[in-house]
Structures are given as structure tokens and as C-alpha cells.
Amino acid sequence: MTADLEAALADFARALEADLAARLDAAPRPGEIVRPPRLLAAMRHAVLAGGKRLRPFLLVEAARLVDPGLTPAALMPAAAAVECLHCYSLVHDDLPAMDDDALRRGRPTVHVAYDDATAILAGDALLTLAFDLLADPACHADPAVRAALVLDLARAGGLGGMVGGQMLDLAAEGRFGTAGADPDEAGIRQLQAMKTGALIRAAIVMGARLGGGKDADIIRLGRFGEVIGLAFQLADDLLDVTSTTEEMGKAVAKDAAHGKGTLVGLHGVDASRAELERLVTEAADLLAPWGQRSDMLIAAARFVADRRR
Ligand code: GRG
Q1: Which pTM was predicted?
Q2: In this structure, are residues 218 and 209 in contact, taking their beta carbons and an 8 Å threshold?
Q3: Which strand (E) or helix (H) includes residue 143?
Q4: What is the CB < 6 Å shell around ligand 1?
Q5: Centroid of ligand 1 to alpha carbon of 47 (angstroms)
Q6: Do the beta carbons of residue 216 and residue 199 sit within 8 Å?
Q7: DSSP character for 28?
Q8: Which of 20, 111, 159, 196 is the pocket-test mutation for ligand 1 (most atoms within 8 Å of CB)?
Q9: Statement: residue 163 has pLDDT above 70
């Protein structure tokens, strides 16, 4: 990871954390009646517990690639929306009915710290908050842009995206009998593109949109997002076999334990590392039209591939 990226990501994570903490205060917003303290505390536990903040960072950097005049502060509502949706997915993924995990970001998961019902509702409220933030005029002055952002996130996060990918993932573990169990390589790639890739791609597309990108910019950055999404998942699968619970702050060696097919399982660690390198090169090539302005996003691609947590 380059020093610049390390510092930029840490600065951004601090600013986003402060922004999210302010949004998740006890004061009801117009149209709300009351914010139940236990639910609010569970949401704060889910959102303010660290995390790399990679997706919102990618959103901000994609926007600033297209329009270098934009400040992170101006992009914060959309960045916070993407992080809220991501955190909701982690809370629900950790539930006993899903992955049944006790540790996330080095702390007890929300259902362990609170209870299952509160964790379900905290996830639901974070999902809803994500769309609240995008629909609010503070996100962007143009209602057409806000509607496009809502659609980007909904399509990436829902039935044919992340939630659908999670369903395919559970089926791949054999949860629902033989249908969908043991997918082939194309099946694994598809479910990973949905479960993990779609939100990463959407964050980058949303950034490009907020930067006022033309269709060609949005298409090119969308492809960059797909490549980064692939690299992110491949790195995650590699970490599952090469990392430790202490390093990751969550359980590892879960894919094999769940009999889950991954690209690392199919091709091995060395070939997967080589594929990661190829993906970083492809990602950098896609940003060539922006020259040196793309240095931060290229460093982010490198970070995604090399990360240790
Ligand atoms: C339950 C609707 C629903 C969806 C679950 C996100 C997800 C879909 C499952 C999480 C399980 C998992 C390990 C997926 C692989 C990649 C991934 C999303 C890892 C966690 O994201 P990071 O590493 O986490 O960006 P931090 O904590 O840094 O935000």
C-alpha cells in the first residue's frame, strides 16, 4: 500500500466515522417520531466499529477523478449511504440463520452484543437509512441525479445483486438441498459478482455520477469497479486460507468448513495470486485516460489485492 493511500484512507475513514456518528444521534429527523435507544445503539455498534471504509472511499475518489473540484465533504451523504448498506449486509450476514459469526471487525457481532431481533432491525434500519441519505436534497441538488443514485444502489444491493448473491451463496453451501449446490466456476464467479462485486461497482459508478461523468466515463469506471470487485473477492478468499482470526478480526478458514467452492479452491493459491496481479494491471489500464489523476484509484486497486484484513 502506498503511503499516500494509507494516509488518505485513514483520514477519510475518520471523517466518515464522524459523519456517521452525527447522523446516528438520538434526535428524530423531520418525519420520524422517536429513535428507540436500543435500536440506535445497535446501529451505532454496527457502523462505528471501524472497518476499512473502502466502498465509500472508492465512491469519493471516483467522483474526484471525474471532477477534481469536488470535496469529500460534499460527497459524504452518498458515501455514508453506501457504508450503511454495507454495514447492514454484514449485520445480517453474521446472524445465526446466515453465517452465524460471533466476531466482526474485532468485536462481538451485533446479535451477540444485543440479540437476534435487534440485529435484524438494526440491519433493516441501516438499509432504510441508506436510501434516506440518497433521497435527501443534501446529497445532490439535482433530483434526477438523486434518483439515479437510488437506482444504482437498489439494483446493486437487491434481488439481482448483493441479496441475490447471498441467496446463491447459501444455496452453494447446500442449504436448500442439491439445487445450486457446488456451482461450477461460472456459477462461483456469478455469485461473487453479485454478493461482493455489485456493491463495489455501484460505489464507483455512483461516484462517477456525482462527479458529473458522461456515459463513457460511467461505463469505463463501472468496468473498473467490476475488476476491483473481482480482485476484492479473490483477495478475501485468499485471506480465508492464509490469514488468522487475529489479523482479520473475524473468523477465517470458513469456506472449506462450509464446503464452499471458491476460485482459490479451484485454481490454488499461487494461480490466484497471479490472477490478482493481472486484475490490478487491468484496473490500472482502464484508468489510463485520466493519467496521473488516477494514481489514488490505482493505489486503491493495489490495496484491494494486497490487503491483510
Ligand atoms: C446478508 C443481505 C446480506 C448480504 C451479505 C456482504 C455480504 C453479503 C456478506 C459478507 C460476508 C463476506 C465475508 C463477504 C465477502 C466480502 C466482504 C463483503 C467482506 C467484508 O467487507 P470488508 O472487508 O469489511 O470491506 P470492512 O469491515 O472493512 O468494512
Answers
A1: 0.95
A2: yes
A3: helix 143-157
A4: 51-52, 54, 89-90, 92-93, 98, 105, 162-163, 166, 195-196, 236
A5: 13
A6: no
A7: P
A8: 196
A9: yes
Question: What CA–CA distance (Å, rounded) separates 242 from 223?
Answer: 28
Q: Report d(CA 250, CA 238) in Å as an integer.
A: 14
Nearest CA to ligand 1 atom 3: 89
Distance CA 105, CA 109 (A): 8
Q: Is 129 helix (H, G, I), strand (E, B) or coil?
A: helix
The pLDDT tens digits of the residues spanning 116-158 come to 999 999 999 999 999 999 999 999 999 999 999 999 999 999 9
pLDDT at res. 2? 61
CATH number at residue 272: 1.10.600.10
**Which three three-digit cell numbers place residue 212?**
458529473
**How does the average pLDDT of the chain come out, rounded?**
95
Total domains in the chain come to: 1
pLDDT tens digits for range 254-265:
777 777 788 998
Q: Distance, CA 143 to ligand 1 centroid (Å)?
A: 30
The DSSP bridge pattern shows strands 103-104 and 107-108 to be antiparallel
Domain that holds residue 256: 3-306
Q: For residues 270 and 299, is the Cβ–Cβ distance under 8 A?
A: no
Q: How many CA atoms lie within 13 A of 51 on its CB side?
A: 24
